Amino acid sequence: MDKAEARRTALAARDEAHDPERDRFAQARLRTALAPLAGRPIAGFLPIGTEIDPLPIMAELATEGPVGVPITPSLGHPLSFRAWTPETPLIDGKFGTRWPAEGDEVVPEVLIVPLVGFDRAGNRLGYGGGFYDRTLEALRAVRPTVAVGYAYAAQELEELPLEPTDQPLDAIVTEAETLRFT
């Protein structure tokens, strides 16, 4: 299966699985998975379309330490992260994203990573821009950085087309289970 076909399959499964009740189950698992890391700089994401929703957990984490959300750069560059709280004013960004209009930069030690698809070995399939792979590579070159994929269980694919630049995840959290790889 090539990446385009894998993305179509995983996105169709995500659209089908999208449900606030599933989000609540996944949020409970995400809370548990991140509890030992609370207080460390964390980056999450603002969900787009039918992406699973991490916002309630990000709001809880923001009471214990800095939480950032991605600022999408030009293609070929890593993400940067700007401080976020539930009250932060947002502006429209690139590729349908939103981010804080202003605020301090957050250099995360932990990232909640959105997924188009994933496999049971800790590999992820993104939208194709390579932003998270470049970001994780740059952060991990400086210090240990934990990457927690967050998606619906239905987005699991039996096999992913991988490239040498793909960065592995340390865990994947869904509404059904938490997979750990380190």
TrEMBL record:
Positions bound to substrate: L46, E51
Pfam families documented for this protein: 5-FTHF_cyc-lig
Entry keyword Metal-binding: yes
Gene Ontology molecular function: any one: ATP binding
UniProt enzyme class: ligase
UniProt-listed Enzyme Commission number(s): 6.3.3.2
Protein name: 5-formyltetrahydrofolate cyclo-ligase
Region of interest (Disordered), residue spans: 1-22
Keywords associated with the record: ATP-binding, Ligase, Magnesium, Metal-binding, Nucleotide-binding
